[in-house]
Design brief:
With 569 residues, this protein is of the alpha/beta class. The protein is built from 23 helices and 22 strands. The structure holds ligand C2E and calcium ion (2 copies).
């Protein structure tokens, strides 16, 4: 009884072994005790013959094996693999316990967790059937791997997906050595994929993507990592290559990818555009990939079917432009674009006979920005109509303030872009009507290019001239006006470009000026000389018969309230 208590709880092998070694009397007890534990137990003698086995052992191994005392263990289990044999041999020979898990094939087809202990008779094996647990483990492992693969790979092309690619790039960036060449990434985009998809169907589109994926991985080689970024975009992390090698790889990609692909009954020809970016020392993954994407857009912009490298300067200039554009929008919304006025003087009587409205932008944090910068910006950003309208209304409202000055005209610059519709003329006329200002108080300045072939512009200017508004050709002489056509255009003034004024110190310069003035008078037009900076120039234009003059010598552009009282500053 007391011994029985000592071996409880059941299954404590160390105590079992102690009892086994205690003497012959314990054999019976051992047998009954072994039957009460949940493990299968087999005791082998030094010749690997079965000495004892418990009931559980028979239950676990079942009818498939003929497990009876006296039989040789390896006869009962002929297909036991090396793990069984070497483990039991260790316990038998070296007298140390060994625990292992192993699979026994047919007829059992089961996994066992077994532990062998040395005993005085030989060894004592106790074991459990763990097939179910192993099965679940295997299934779980397979599922885990499958999920990991699905989460990191694109099912269509079997390439890595974006998430895994980003991880791989990050790891490469972190582990790069200072003496290594910069890490390079390619961003590829099919040029005609949408067309293929829309016209031949998604199945052909999918087949094309698979084909392209294979071609890319073949060309870039095993040193590179290729991934599908999404849609028809692919990314490649290149191995350690020089810039020349990268370029020739791109050239080969372009060449290989434009080879027509046979997809079922269709022969599909596509091209790709490639953006290339190399990592600067402090570039992170996102910057590197974004740079490659920016380069891709440059490649597309330049006409597709080509590669382009990321250009940091161009990119910064672009960013700067985008920022400035946003600020210009804000300024227009807030109405903070100002208008300054630069007077024009009559060369016959010296009177101030008008003023040119010039847009001014004081951008908070940046200071004054030149119209040479923000006017082209407004044109490209589609803001020129708003800006032009704002200047026109401000100038017309100002002209009303100057209504008491006889023969005084306010001139407004109008960009060529504003003439894309003829509405611009109606806008001017209705602004005049709204402010109660007569058309003889307004002039518009346009450049020669506006008149070149745009009939819309010519019509709009015709409308203005008929209404009594003056029209000047600005910067005259710098464009390519056809002299023959000039007479038939709705133009009242030639505003001689300041480069001719600056050239008046040579005889040819003076001759040219005389020619222009003569031409204007022949056509019934007046002339204005802009950019007068010296009294010599003023004297020369007066002598040449120019009608009006403008320039820093006479007056600089000023806010409206200072125009008539220049001393008030
Ligand atoms: P622009 O129409 O030829 O205007 C004359 C420019 O010459 C003005 O520059 C003026 O300040 C400058 N200027 C005047 N006198 C002299 C002088 O004696 N010497 C020199 N070196 N320059 C003189 P600003 O204001 O910087 O304007 C530059 C250009 O921006 C204008 O050239 C015009 O093309 C454009 N611009 C300005 N405001 C507007 C606007 O409201 N709408 C449009 N579409 N363009 C505008
Ligand atoms: Ca002008
Ligand atoms: Ca000008």
């Amino acid at each position: 009884m007391s011994e029985h208590e000592r071996v409880s709880p059941a299954g404590n092998a160390t105590k079992v072994v102690l009892d086994v070694t205690a003497g012959r009397r314990s054999e019976v007890m051992l047998a009954s005790m072994l039957d009460s534990i949940s493990d299968g137990v087999i005791v082998l003698d030094f010749d690997y013959r079965i000495l004892y086995l418990n009931q559980q052992a028979a239950v676990v191994l079942g009818a498939e094996v003929n497990l009876v005392p006296g039989r040789g263990f390896w006869d009962v289990f002929p297909d036991a693999d090396d793990l069984f044999r070497s483990s039991y041999a260790r316990t038998m020979n070296e007298r140390v316990p060994v625990t292992f898990e192993a699979f026994y094939p047919a007829p059992l087809n089961r996994w066992f967790e077994a532990r062998a202990q040395p005993s005085s008779d030989g060894i004592l094996i106790y074991f459990q059937d763990v097939t179910e647990r192993r099965g679940q483990q295997d299934e779980r492992e397979a599922l885990r791997q499958e999920l990991a693969h699905q989460a990191s790979h694109d099912p269509l092309t079997e390439l890595m997906n974006r998430a895994l690619f980003e991880k791989v790039v990050s790891e490469r960036l972190v582990s790069r050595q200072p003496d290594q060449r910069p890490i390079t990434v390619l961003f590829l985009d099919l040029d005609q994929f949408k067309l293929v998809n829309d016209s031949l169907g998604h199945a052909v589109g999918d087949a094309l993507l698979r084909k392209i994926a294979t071609r890319i991985t073949t060309v870039v080689g095993s040193d590179a990592v290729t991934a599908r970024w999404g849609g028809d975009e692919f990314v490649v992390l290149l191995g350690d290559l020089s810039a020349e090698e990268v370029q020739s790889l791109c050239d080969r990609l372009l060449e290989e990818l434009r080879v027509p692909a046979q997809l079922g009954e269709y022969t599909v020809t596509t091209t790709v555009s490639i953006g290339v970016a190399s990592a600067d020392l402090d570039d992170g993954t996102l910057t590197l990939l974004r740079n490659a994407d920016v380069a891709l857009y440059r490649a597309k912009d330049a006409g597709r079917n080509r590669s382009a490298w990321f250009d940091a300067d161009a990119h910064h200039a672009l960013l700067e432009r985008i920022l400035l554009e946003a600020e210009l929008r804000t300024a227009l919304d807030a109405g903070t674009i100002d208008v300054h006025y630069q007077p024009l003087f009559s060369l016959t009587d010296g009177r101030m006979c008008g003023a040119e409205a010039l847009a001014r932008w004081h951008c908070p944090g940046r200071g004054s920005i030149s119209p040479e910068i923000f006017i082209p910006l407004a044109e490209d950003a589609g803001l020129i109509n708003r800006l032009g309208r704002h200047v026109a209304r401000t100038a017309i409202a100002q002209a009303r303030q100057w209504n008491h000055i006889p023969g005084f005209r306010v001139w407004v610059n109008v960009s060529g872009r504003q003439f894309s519709t003829s509405i611009v003329a109606d806008d001017f006329l209705s602004d005049l009507t709204d402010s109660g200002v007569g058309p003889e108080r307004l002039g518009v300045e346009v450049t020669e290019s506006v008149l070149a072939d745009e009939t819309v512009a010519v019509q709009a200017l015709g409308t203005l001239v008929s209404a009594g508004v003056a029209v000047a050709i600005d910067d005259f002489g710098t464009g390519y006006s056809s002299i023959a056509r000039l007479g038939s255009l709705p133009v009242t003034v030639l505003k001689i470009d300041r480069s001719f004024i600056a050239g008046l110190d040579t005889p040819q310069g003076r001759a040219t000026l005389n020619l222009i003035v003569h031409l204007a008078h022949t056509l019934g037009m007046n002339t204005t000389a802009e950019g007068i900076e010296t009294s010599e120039q003023l004297e020369l234009v007066r002598k040449a018969g120019v009608t009006t003059a403008q320039g820093y010598l006479l007056a600089r552009p000023t806010p409206a309230h200072q125009l008539l009282h220049p001393t008030s500053t």
